[in-house]
Amino acid sequence: MPEGSMGISNIATCTAPVNIAVIKYWGKRNEELILPINSSLSVTLHQDQLKTTTTIATSRSFQEDRIWLNGKEEDINHPRLQSCLREIRRLARKRRSDGDPGLDSTGLSHKVHICSVNNFPTAAGLASSAAGFACLVHTLARVFGIEAELSAIARQGSGSACRSMYGGFVQWIMGHQDDGKDSLAQQVEPETHWPELRILVLVASAERKPIGSTSGMHTSVETSCLLKHRAEAVVPVRMDGMIEAVQRKDFPAFAELTMKDSNQFHATCLDTYPPIFYLNNVSHQIINLVHQYNNYYGETRVAYTFDAGPNAVIFTLQEHVSEFIQVVRHFFPPETNDGQFIKGLPVNCAPLSEELKQIGLEPIPKGISYIISTKAGPGPCVVDDPTQHLLGTDGWPKKTE
Ligand code: DP6
């Protein structure tokens, strides 16, 4: 974008998605470069329901790099933020010194203003750092005119962020090099590959997680021999099985691996010393309910997975969504029936048989605050409409109220 009246040399706005791992990343072999001890695989969630939006501007009039997240200024000196900024500026300088004729070098030495918002509550424990760092890196690259592979930079913001750089089904190949150059995300299948697949985020609690992933996995690497076994012997086999299940759209195989891998991740948390508990009573009830439901039908129709918090993410096929939602509504009766319980993609109302009402334990009223109904979606996108920029023409955050 050409230089504006207030000296903005470049400005860009992008959006990026949340992803949910079905083969979990847990544990680093290099904490600074964020290199994992095992590969992982995730599904990128649709940005219509969950996304981060980021605007970045450069200007010769900016005194220093600054960042605002969800309306509040944050510390730009955060080491992971600095890694991403440094890596992008390094690539931009390299392009200039390589003499790329298409490069507009205005703004290369300028400071940046970064403004970012989520369309979902950060405190809901929904992998906001993955979408946040993916969006930061994608937008920085746009502002500085870089078209390189970016997942290795997003990875240095937050490991799981590298998988948010692509849509659909994405693997993060752990790599083996010490410099991390081969530790990259790669799309396995695009978001259009399995249109029947549906995803339900069951928000069990709006509380912040007790132990963050970064410190939790650090303690696990130090103390859990189950984690070592998992990384060396279990995950490599599961990655092959999961890629095959996704490619063949084999729901029972996909679902079984997803549940087993979530359970093993939480088992490694329990094997950590002192142990880490991310699941609560509601999470345990959901696990129980999914198995009872599948058992009732004699086939695997629904799968759960849990990250470093109590929220369940459910995978199922379109044809089973409405009934399973009624099951959830029955066993976790919401406070009100005003339709606010289900957000996102519309869900038809299906009657619930008396038999299905018997499959679970005692209902837990208000155990789930709401459900986000979504599906697989695309990777980061550029927002072309200049009215959508979060920074004004003066380069400062627009007033929202
Ligand atoms: C349980 O990517 O948040 O969600 O690399 O330290 O930032 P850092 O950790 P982070 O860990 C995510 C862990 C997980 C599993 C997963 O997403 O694969």
From TrEMBL:
The keyword ATP-binding applies. It catalyses: (R)-5-diphosphomevalonate + ATP = isopentenyl diphosphate + ADP + phosphate + CO2. GO terms for cellular component: cytosol. GO terms for molecular function: ATP binding; diphosphomevalonate decarboxylase activity. Residues 199-383 form the Mvd1 C-terminal domain. Its EC number is 4.1.1.33. GO terms for biological process: cholesterol biosynthetic process; isopentenyl diphosphate biosynthetic process, mevalonate pathway. Belongs to the diphosphomevalonate decarboxylase family. NCBIfam families: mevDPdecarb. Catalyzes the ATP dependent decarboxylation of (R)-5-diphosphomevalonate to form isopentenyl diphosphate (IPP). Functions in the mevalonate (MVA) pathway leading to isopentenyl diphosphate (IPP), a key precursor for the biosynthesis of isoprenoids and sterol synthesis. This is Diphosphomevalonate decarboxylase. It comes from Monopterus albus.
